[in-house]
Design goal:
Blueprint: H1 6-20, H2 23-29, E1 34-39, E2 42-46, H3 50-72, E3 78-82, H4 104-107, H5 127-138, E4 148-152, H6 158-172, E5 178-182, H7 183-196, H8 199-205, E6 211-215, H9 224-240, E7 243-248, H10 260-267, E8 270-274, H11 279-292, H12 299-308, H13 313-330, H14 336-347, H15 356-367, H16 371-375, H17 381-397, H18 402-408, H19 414-429, H20 432-446
Parallel strand pairs: 2-3, 4-7, 4-8, 5-6, 6-7
Antiparallel strand pairs: 1-2
Helix pairs in contact: 1-3, 5-6, 7-9, 11-12, 11-13, 12-14, 13-14, 15-17, 15-20, 17-19, 18-19
Bound molecules: adenosine-5'-diphosphate and magnesium ion.
Magnesium ion is lined by residues 158-159, 215.
Length: 447
Amino acid sequence: MSEKTPEAIWSECLSEARTVLPPSTFDAWLTDSAFDSQEGDAFTVRFSNMFKARWAKDHYGELLQGALRDAAGRPELTLVCTGPPAPPPEAARPHASQTAPAYGDVRMTYLHPSYTFERFVAGPSNELAYAGARAVAMDPGKHSHNPFFIYGGVGLGKTHLIQAIAHEIRRADPGKVFWYVSSEQFTQLVVSMIRNGSTMDFRRQYRDVDILLMDDVQFLAGKETTVNEFFHRFNELYQRGSQIVLTSDHAPAEIEGLEERLISRFQSGLVVDIRPPEYETRLAILELKARESEGFIPPEVLQYIATSIRSNVRQLEGAVHRLTATSRLKRLPIDLELARSVLADTLGASVRAPSLGQIAAAVAESFGISPAQLRGQHRRREILVPRQAAMLLMRELTNTPLSEIGDFFSGRDHSTVLNSIERIGKLSADDPALKRRIAEIRSKFTS
Ligand code: ADP
Ligand code: MG
C-alpha cells in the first residue's frame, strides 16, 4: 500500500469539505489551512489565526474529522486545529513589546460575514434576544441595555447575534472601535501580557474601545487573574459609556464558579435568554438555509427535518449541508427518502429529540423506581424528586410545552410543571450528587 503524505491527506480532506460546504464558508474558514505536524495519533492542521482554528474545529470539526479518517485510512487519527506558531521565547522578553503592538490584531478579529441580522430568523424562542440585540446596535451604550447579556444552550445563535450587533454598528458608524473577543482569547491575551510584562501596553490598547463584545464568558470562571483583569477593563469601559455585550451558556448567577462581583455586574443591564426554536422557527430557519445553499429542497423534506431535529440550529444547518452535498455527490434528487437516509446515517440517533417516554424511562431506571410511579400521584420524596428531574429534562431535551409535559404526568397543569422544574433546579444546586445524576441521565441523550 503506498503511503500518502500528510499534505496529500489534508488536501483530500479539503476537497471533501469543498464539496459539502457552501463556497463562501469554505473560503472564509478553510482555504488557508495547512498540514502542520503529526505526532502519534494527533494530526495537526494550522490556520492563519487561532480564531479561525477554533471556529473550524467547532463548526466543521465533525466533517473534517470524518474526511481525515477516510483519507488517511486510519480511524484512530484525531484532528487538532491550531493557530500560527507562538513567537520564540526570546521575543517575549519584557520590553520586547515596545515596538510591536502585540494585541492589535485581536481587536479586529474577523467577523463571520453572514452573521448579520438579515440572516437571523426571529421567533418566539429568541425574539427577546433578537429585539435586545437590535436595540443595542441602534443605540450602543444606553444605560438600560448595558451590559447586554445573552445566554442559552449550544448552537442557538448567540455568536450569530453578538456578531450581528458588531456588523450593524460598524455599518452605521465605521469610526467606532470594536473589541470582539472570546473569553478564551482574552485569557490568552492576559497570559501573554503577564509573560511579556506589558501590562501598561495592554491596558492602553483597550482603553479607547467603544464596544466590547465577549463571546462565551463562562470560560472565565475560575481563572482568577483573568477575571480580575476583565473586571477592571469592564469597569473602565462601562464608566466610559462603552457598550458591553456578553454571551454565555448559562444565566449569570448559574455560571459555576463565577465571582459574585462579576455576576452582579452582568445582571445590572439587560439579560435575555435564547431557547431552542419551536417548530415554526425551525422551519423558517431551514427555509433560509436552503435558499442560501442554492439547492431546491422540497417543503415536505424541510418539514421532515424540522420535526426530526429539535434542539439545535447548528444541527439544522448541518442537515441542509449534508443533504445538498449528498444529493450532488450521488446525483440523487432531494426527497424524503434521501433525507431519511442522510439524517439516519450521518447524524445518528442523537439528533432526534428523545420522546417523553424515553426520558421518563431513563429517569425511572436511574432512580430505581418504575415509570408508572414516576407518572403517578405519590408525593413521597423518593418519587417526587425523580418526577421533578424528569420534567426538567423533558423541558431541556425536547421542546415540549409545559402543558404537554403536565399531560404526560397524569394531567398536571403547566404551573405545577414550572414549579417542579424550579424546585429541582434549586435542589440540585445544593446537592452535587443529585446534580451529577441528572447530568448523567442528560448525557445519555445528548452525547
Ligand atoms: P451559539 O453561539 O449559540 O452556540 P451560533 O451562533 O454559533 O450558536 O449558531 C449556530 C449556527 O446556527 C450558526 O451558523 C448560526 O448562523 C445559525 N443560527 C442560529 N440561530 C439562528 C437563527 N435564529 N436564524 C438563522 N441562523 C441561526
Ligand atoms: Mg457561540
